[in-house]
Amino acid sequence: MRKGKVIVVGGIPNPIGGVTIFLSRLLQRDYRSIRFLLDCYPGEKVKISNHCDEKVLALGSKVNLITWFYLNVFKFNDDIVFFNFSNIHSLILTLFLPKLGRGWRVMLHHGDLAVDSFLMRLIYRVSLRRFDVVYSLSNSQMELYKKLGVKSLIRTKSYVNASKPSISRDVYEFVAKLKKGHNKIFVSSGFATSIYNHELNIDLFLTDEFKDYCLVIFLYGSGDRNALRERTMQANNIIIMEDCSEVYFNQVLSMSDCYLRPTLVDSFGVAVADAINFGVTAICSSVCDRYPGAVTFPSWDVLMYHDIVLNYSEKKGRTVNEEEVIKYLFPGVV
Fold first, then answer.
1. Confidence at residue 140, expressed as pLDDT on a 0 to 100 scale
2. What domains sit in the chain, N to C, each tagged with a CATH number?
3. Which of 325, 205, 323 is nearest to 272 (CA)?
4. Model confidence, pTM
């Protein structure tokens, strides 16, 4: 059997996002089997363990990625190239790359992969033919890939678990201050876009029923942040945090009482799994398969969500066993 390594293509930009979290954790977990992580995005990178720094090649642009592929096309013949993008539009980039290595794999991390037109459907069909394996994260992804003619599909999850973080003095004091003035601390996170449904959480916490509870919203990535700031301007129990590191977010999450994720579209929800592993209750929509122990509700049932959040169990979720959890973990590149 040929023994190569894995060349990961993607990005670990700071602030954090789903792809960043997945790749940074994958690099640390599978360090020995990964040759490089080719980061083709500009800007600051998320901090990772020192022993992983040498694996990250910060190329800074997609043009530089294309150049790197051509310069190394005859090298690493036994390696597998594993592409990671957020949405389907990024597949167009792969049409400009020479076929390096002995096999290509791809994972698209966005839960809702829409194809705009016949022309784009044709382009995606051609680009997907270049991959030996396509990882699917949801039923909707699976259906789309089949319509685009993909045959080598593997259903998997994009979760690499995190250990419970040590709490810094700053985070401890921040959360302790919040707990002095509120009965419970809730956390939510995501882009400032409609699919994350932040407005639903904000409207709940603006009511008198939730005046003694505090909601901390962590925003990153794109979207209309100003609209959310304006909506919460008069609220004393809603705090918006922007572009925080994964380390900081996980520390606050682990000290909170409950994590909320009423998303309208999702592929998994890394923070849901992390919350449960940290011993924190997670309440989320049932738009996708959720991590064992999550409390779910239909995304259209706002009244049910209101009741669950208001009266959620004091117990920190149910205990999950290893057999339940293992199928939700990404096993590695195959």
1. 85
2. 6-155 (3.40.50.11930), 169-318 (3.40.50.2000)
3. 325
4. 0.80
